[in-house]
Design a protein that fits this description.
Elements (H helix, E strand, L loop, with lengths): L16 E4 L2 E4 L10 H5 L3 E8 L2 E2 L2 H15 L7 H14 L5 E9 L13 E8 L12 E10 L16 H12 L4 E6 L4 E4 L3 E6 L2 E5 L8 H12 L3 E5 L11 E6 L3 E8 L2 E2 L4 H13 L6 H10 L1
Parallel strand pairs: 7-8, 7-14, 11-12
Antiparallel strand pairs: 1-2, 1-6, 3-4, 3-5, 5-6, 8-9, 10-11, 10-13, 13-14, 14-15
This protein binds pyridoxal-5'-phosphate.
């Protein structure tokens, strides 16, 4: 096991407050038992969100997705969507954070420990913390290797859910990538098409057109959807389709999107080199202004018409 670095602040030993099953509890007291069903069987569902200047970007869509993920995994999140939206703001306020990362999650509790968990309680938590750039090398473009693992078929697992079990191979892929000096890994899907990174969607650019894999067996990220709208508002052609790994050498720019990663340029992926260029730069700028409410899609559309 890698030794924690000297400036490592463990997530279970911090100051602050966490909302757990209806109560705001001191950070260090937000504990669960080792015999928790979802810990053993992977059925925790979660959201990763960011707040900017005190407002959670697409909060309601994230809360709805948490509910959808729970449904896909076979249970109901007990906290209504509107309530979740309110709780996120309350936890931010209680912790004095206006710019932060938000983790809302639900899981099966400890009442049952076999594979069957019909009577297990469903628990919910919302935690927030400061999280700067997801990638240390975000601005100059990240280096990405190819994962050994593939995104599974939707007939194998509910692949549209943001569920813990789907991330086991992401952590394995990311660890291997980091051990080899890369920031992340590209995962192909079960058919061999380009799918996504371990925690972000991928976009590739060629001759001014933006290509992105069809999300038919992995998360159709909210950031992905926002960036597609931004790109269309700017008048760029966006093509959603199956992309083969052989095509990777034909693109000139590449970037990834995610609530944590935001819009991050890619300098290298699976041995191919890309130049973070004008389109990536424009969309990264638009995204950073949109999330802070400094620009709207309508304004981008209007300025694209004039230009
Ligand atoms: C595997 C995976 N794909 C894609 C995304 C991007 O999703 P979103 O933009 O909704 O954060 C994430 C991040 O949550 C992810 O973990």
């Amino acid at each position: 096991m890698a030794a924690p670095s000297a400036n490592f602040v463990p997530y279970d030993d911090r100051d602050g407050w966490i909302w757990l099953d209806g109560k705001m509890v001191p950070w260090r007291d937000a504990k669960i038992h080792v015999l928790t069903h979802s810990l053993h069987y992977g059925s925790c569902v979660f959201e990763g969100e960011r707040a900017y200047d005190g407002a959670v970007f697409r909060s309601n869509d994230h809360s709805k997705r948490l509910h959808k993920s729970a449904e896909l995994v076979g249970y109901k999140c007990p906290v209504p969507v509107a309530e979740l939206d309110k709780i996120k703001l309350e936890v931010m306020e209680k912790n004095g954070l206006a710019d932060c990362y938000i983790r809302a999650f639900s899981w099966r509790g400890s009442e049952m420990m076999g594979v069957s968990a019909q009577q297990a309680s469903i628990r919910t938590c919302v935690a927030v913390w400061h999280w700067g750039n997801y990638f240390a090398d975000k601005n100059k473009g990240i280096r990405v290797t190819m994962s050994d693992w593939k995104r599974p078929s939707p007939e194998t697992i509910p692949s549209a859910a943001k569920a813990a079990g789907l991330y086991m191979i992401c952590t394995m892929s990311k660890h291997k990538a980091e051990a080899e000096g890369f920031s992340d890994a590209l995962m192909l899907d079960y058919r061999g098409y380009v799918a996504e990174l371990t925690g972000a969607n991928v976009f590739l650019i060629r001759d001014g057109a933006i290509h992105t894999p069809t999300p038919d067996c992995f998360l159709n990220g909210l950031t992905r959807q926002t960036v597609i709208e931004l790109a269309k508002a700017r008048g760029f052609e966006v093509i959603e389709r199956h992309i083969t790994p052989e095509e990777l050498s034909t693109f000139s720019e590449c970037f990834i999107t995610g609530s944590a990663a935001e819009v991050t340029p890619v300098a290298e992926m699976a041995g191919h080199h890309y130049k973070p260029g004008n389109i990536t730069g424009a969309l990264a700028d638009d995204y950073s202004q949109l999330v802070r409410g400094k620009i709207s899609l309508e304004q981008i559309r209007a300025s694209a018409k004039v230009a």
